[in-house]
Amino acid sequence: MLPQDQKEEVTRMSGLIHLYCGEGKGKTTAAMGLALRAAGAGRRVLVLQFFKDGSSSEVQALNSFPDVEIVSHKKRFGFFWTLSDEERAQAREYYSALLEEVMAKSGDYDLLVLDEAMSACTNGVICEERLRQLLAEKPEALEVVLTGRDPSQAMVDQADYVTEMRKIKHPFDRGIPARLGVEY
Questions:
Q1: Strand order in 143-148's β-sheet?
Q2: How confident is the model at residue 74 (pLDDT cuts 50, 70, 90)?
Q3: pTM
Q4: Per residue in 156-174, pLDDT tens?
């Protein structure tokens, strides 16, 4: 057990890695909730979403905070499984460069959200080994949140928090589409 003065120093200085994964709803919601909490506490927040266009309601709300930066995509690739090999290669190059850019400036922030990073790794859009290296070299005080399905055991091992969302029942299974303000 750490003495109280050391606990306070660890609390102040150590940024941890959160992993929100699983098949259930709530991964992005939890990540954006933490971003909202951090912004409300006066912390600087940086968000990068893979595969998403930045038009969801939570992104719109977070954009109203002065110390929150949402990194928007300049290119859209569509659904990964519909892309040709050439389009996939372009997506890999684009998203890998975007990840490098975001990590390079992450030292100016207190919280970094990499939404759908696990899905980006699974689909080969970013190199998991490179992501793991970047996380190992991150600024000490930077808190990082990763979301997405099917994280590797290496990613689970590297994370400090791992929360799995498990779907038991979802309206989509009954044909009810995603609803503004609830699912996006």
A1: 68-71, 45-49, 111-115, 143-148, 17-22, 161-165
A2: confident
A3: 0.87
A4: 999 999 999 998 888 888 8
SS3 128: helix
Q: pLDDT digits over 52-66, tens only?
A: 878 888 898 999 999
Does residue 1 register a pLDDT over 80? no
| DSSP β-ladder status, 17-22 and 161-165 | parallel
Maximum C-alpha span of the chain = 57
Beta bridge partners of 68: 45
DSSP state of 42: T
How far is residue 26's CA from residue 183's CA, in Å, rounded to a whole number? 9
- If DSSP codes are grouped into helix, strand and coil, which group holds residue 12? helix
- Give CA–CA dist 143/151, Å, rounded: 19
Determine the Cα–Cα distance for residues 91 and 99; give it in Å rounded to an integer.
12
Q: What angle do CA 13, 18, 19 make, to 5 degrees?
A: 165
**Which two tokens mark 100?**
């490098």
Contact 48, 102 (CB under 8 A): yes
